[in-house]
Amino acid sequence: MDCIFCKIVEGTIPSKKVLENEHVVAFHDIQPAAPVHILIIPKKHFAGMNDAQDSDWPLIGEIHRAAQQIAKEQGVAETGYRLVNNCGKDAGQVVFHLHYHLLAGEKLGGLNAK
To answer: Which intervals of this chain are the motif Histidine triad motif (predicted)?
Structure first.
């Protein structure tokens, strides 16, 4: 498999990790869109949210638990952060391994619905 995030999980591609446990890895995005921009990924590979099976929902919960912990450790839990999952190419998903972006560190712009 030629998945960059799987290679980060394996340790064959370096990353600046902020958290790793049995189920999840979190690391700094190499192209940050905010002062704090952390990617949170499951160690298990599946392309995106639409590929999650019933058995994966506890893993999705682990990702959210990791986001809460990371926000506290990064000092942004009180001021606020955004947790984003892009699902599919039209939503802007570029790497097809489920992942969330934790964005914070400044007042983030609003989301304008069209």
So the answer is: 97-101
